[in-house]
Design brief:
The chain has 655 residues and is an alpha+beta fold. It has four domains: 2-66; 113-194, no CATH class; 211-521, 3-Layer(aba) Sandwich (Alkaline Phosphatase, subunit A); 534-648, Nuclear Transport Factor 2, Chain: A (Roll). Helix content is 30%, strand content 20%. It is globular and about 85 Å long.
């Protein structure tokens, strides 16, 4: 701490010295024109404000790291409680200190073409104001996750309808003349549209069939939803009577470690080794995912996810060679965003597809899919308004309220299992450096609304679900619960937690023991939020205080060693804190001590939080990539790396 304070003081005096130097230079400009004097003054003001910001930001960052508790221990008053959940107020002083309000996203212009299911046509408003309209429609056809084809154009005129056939989406360009312009004023428009093409479907739609709708938001913690989507939360709880899981805990880092379990019931390591660092030729097998399981049982499936250039199964992985679902939005958004270049070329229009916010496009398409006359399974995942800046999600609130109420008034919830969820909390926000931020990252939002039909057929299901909301739960449980709800529980994973006979994924429609602990659920110590786990502060005089820090540094530098010509070797700047959890009398952790710590490394002031396992038998320390969280944004640090090395992004600082 003292070293950092001295650094701050040194920086302050350097800024003062430079200000004096610039002031001297300004006096030389007194004989110059007023324009030059004004320019010099502006430069000085900018420089001073920048220096002030750097000092204040650094002090704020240090305060967050040092002046907040690193862990909280709460002894459970009941012996049969396996996990005591942390108490973090969504509106605490810490949370509100970093809360930001953003204006609602507004998209400009007026789209000429709309789609209603499979029929796409020019709107009445355009037909009333433009004549001699010709529109050329070009289908966007999926080949694999990294390839798509733009089909030859089909030209239609005026009110002629374009009927979707081989794909759900297309690009379209239109031309016409203003009706008030005497054929002199031409008008044109181009855009991208999606609908629902007709598909052959199972005719076996029994009265007992249940649909599944999962709507997810990236980086959405429980507290984040309560804080930023208050209207939606109120409707969800009070009008839809959804059950909120209070002990829903992540099992790993980032979106994939949430979606692999939910959508396949498996961990990443149970899938083909499709990480890009292993091979560029191995792809994920769609047959291992729930879309395939339900399709084999007569369902139509949809997978709508935005921001495809950092897709859940494409950013660090090689993606799929064949579409995982019947309706798969990836090629549409790859073409519309030009593989993400629209996003990186400024904020103007970034969040819009034509005259509508992108999140609203996904929501509307989801509602259209629910009109398909078949058993339906839909997973929609929205990231653009919450991935980089979570507080922007507030723009969704009114539209989400509309969607939730539509589900109720349209009687969709009679036979549809509805889940509203987050994958994890914010991972790189300023609040992440606090204890509350750490907990929010690990406690995503998870709400479940059972179908009315299921409640009648299994009267104990809703009571059991409410009881389980108070118990530790994981994404693996969500997979099993979905299959149980729709009568396909036999397809659930039978994987047991190592060294136990306890299934990793349990159905929330059946009682889960209140004694369930992170060990029982297969949650590693790094991700466990249970406050009845006994962590202790480690004193700086403890020999292992710096040993664990240096071990972590060595591990990080070994990861980037293969790219040392591009990635700098990082140095340990400071150890912010170290805590320890002693071994417990258990099958898994009995011979180990766990250390958790936060360190800062240079260049770039990279902040890492990690958990290391100390083996008491031989005195060795181990750490894996799954036990390391980069809690400061890396921004452009790894810019020199190509798209084939995303696994190095949180470690590499380009030379």
């Amino acid at each position: 701490m003292n070293n950092n304070m001295e650094d701050a003081k040194d920086l302050k005096w350097k800024i003062i010295f430079l200000i004096l130097k610039i002031s001297k230079v300004m006096r030389l400009f007194q004989s110059c024109t007023k324009k030059i004097q004004m320019l010099t003054t502006l430069i000085l003001i900018t420089f001073v404000m920048t220096g002030f910001y750097i000092l204040m930001y650094r002090k704020l960052d240090d305060d967050m790291l040092r002046n907040n508790p690193f862990h909280v221990f709460e002894e459970s008053s009941e012996a049969d409680i396996g996990c005591t959940f942390p108490k973090v107020d969504p509106f605490s002083d810490v949370a509100m200190k970093f809360n930001r309000d953003f204006p609602k996203i507004v998209c400009k212009g007026k789209d000429w073409v709309v789609c209603n299911m499979s029929e796409c046509y020019v709107t009445k408003e355009i037909l009333d104001t433009v004549k001699d309209i010709s529109c050329t429609y070009k289908d966007i056809i999926y080949v694999d996750d990294h390839t798509y084809i733009i089909a030859d154009g089909v030209k239609l005129f005026n009110d002629e309808k374009y009927i979707l056939n081989q794909t759900d989406y297309f690009k379209v360009s239109c031309f016409g003349y203003d009706k008030k312009g005497f054929n002199l004023l031409s008008r044109k428009w181009q855009g991208y549209k999606a609908g629902i093409r007709p598909m052959a479907t199972s005719t076996d739609i029994s009265p007992d069939s249940l649909n599944v709708l999962i709507l997810g938001f990236d980086s959405a913690s429980y507290n984040g939803i309560v804080r930023k989507l208050p209207k939606s939360y109120k409707v969800l709880v009070e009008e839809l009577d959804a059950v909120i899981l209070n002990g829903y805990n992540i099992v790993g880092d980032g979106t994939p470690d949430a979606l692999f379990p939910i959508l396949s019931g498996k961990h990443e390591w149970q899938h083909p080794r499709a990480r890009q660092k292993f091979s560029k030729d191995i792809h994920l097998d769609p047959d291992l995912f729930i879309f395939h399981t339900v399709k084999q049982n007569g369902y139509q499936t949809a997978y709508y996810e935005d921001m495809p250039w950092i897709g859940s199964f494409q950013y660090r992985y090689n993606g799929f060679k064949k579409a995982p679902a019947d309706r798969y939005l990836r090629p549409f958004l790859m073409e519309e965003t030009k593989s993400g270049s629209k996003w990186w070329h400024g904020k103007k229009g970034r969040y819009c597809i034509g005259d509508k916010p992108q999140y609203k496009v996904l929501m509307d398409l989801t509602l259209q899919f629910l009109n398909v006359q078949a058993k339906k399974f839909c997973f929609t995942f929205i990231a653009d308004v919450c991935h980089d800046e979570f507080d922007l999600i507030s723009t969704v609130d009114d539209d989400l309220v509309g969607l939730l109420r539509h589900l109720k008034t349209s009687n969709t919830l009679e036979n549809t299992l509805f889940i509203l969820m987050g994958d994890h909390g914010p991972r790189f926000s300023p609040m992440r450096n606090t204890y509350q931020g750490k907990m929010e990252e690990r406690l995503p939002f998870m709400a479940i609304r059972l179908p009315e039909r299921l409640k009648r057929e299994r009267p104990n299901a809703i009571w059991t679900l409410r009881s389980n909301a108070k118990v530790l739960t994981t994404p693996f449980d969500i997979h099993t619960t979905i299959l149980d709800a729709i009568g396909l529980k036999d397809y659930a994973s039978d994987y047991a937690v190592p060294n136990t006979n306890i299934l990793r994924g349990l159905s929330l429609l059946e009682p889960i023991p209140s004694t369930r602990s992170c060990e029982d659920a297969g949650i590693l110590p790094h991700w466990c939020t249970c406050t009845n786990s006994k962590w202790h502060d480690v004193d700086k005089k403890d020999p292992n205080y710096f040993t664990v820090a240096n071990t972590l540094c060595d591990y990080i530098n070994n990861i980037t060693l293969e790219k040392r010509s591009q990635c700098a070797e990082r140095k340990l700047t400071s150890v912010e804190w170290v805590i320890k959890r002693d071994g417990q009398s258990s099958n898994t952790y009995g011979n180990s001590v766990y250390y958790q710590l936060v360190i800062i490394m240079s260049p770039g002031r990279a902040i890492y939080e990690a958990t290391l396992q100390y083996h008491t038998g031989n005195g060795s320390l181990t750490v894996t990539d799954n036990d390391i969280s980069r809690i400061s944004a890396y921004g452009s640090e790894p810019a020199c790396l190509d798209d084939r090395n995303p696994y190095l992004n949180k470690y590499c600082y380009c030379i």
